[in-house]
What does this fold into?
Amino acid sequence: MTGLPNARLYAYWRSSASWRVRIALNLKQIPFTVVPVHLVRNGGEQKSAENRERNPMAQVPTLEWDVPGGQTRRLTQSLAIVQLVDALCPGPALIPSDPFVRARAWEIAEIVNSGIQPLQNTGTLAAVRELGGDAAKFAHDAIEKGLHALERLVSEGHESSFCVGDAPCVADLCVVPQMYNARRFSVDLTPFPRLVAIDAACAKLSAFELSHPDVQPDAEV
Ligand SMILES: N[C@@H](CCC(=O)N[C@@H](CS)C(=O)NCC(=O)O)C(=O)O
It folds into this structure.
């Protein structure tokens, strides 16, 4: 019995926020079923009434699970979900215990979560296009700026293969999907050797392999 019985993850294969949650669940070895929500088809299934009901921002991911008494619980926002998974499920810690290392991990996670990803999200890029802007350049420049900040932070004071310690944590869960998006938007990764090395170290771990977009049930590769 896990802390999240019969977990269902409403997700899209290439959604970086969904990917963060998949890594968390896989690191904790929590069984879960992926329920695909297609972000492009039919004008975007995330905007459907069913998805709005489960996700107030009309986005993915949403995690749903059963609780005693026949009820279902639901949570949105990938980083809130990661915190809950870490608190409820045994296994490797996703959030470091040392106060400064923990704060640094959140600092890195927040640069991705609020400083980069929202600026290259499908909905934002559609709005940039509608306003007559160059969406690909907008996304490229936002990612490049964020990666410069991240490279500085992950280079400070330690030589480990991961963002802040000797094991992957919430920071790595955010950085790895963001590196995939950097490649999608043709960002030159030469100035970011530490981030490239962290991405490569994580890619070798089975929890990250299982979480990769290309192996999701709704992957279009
Ligand atoms: N802060 C949210 C971000 C969620 C988010 O931006 N989801 C994207 C996919 S990565 C989405 O659903 N985009 C479609 C849309 O906004 O219409 C989280 O961490 O869960």
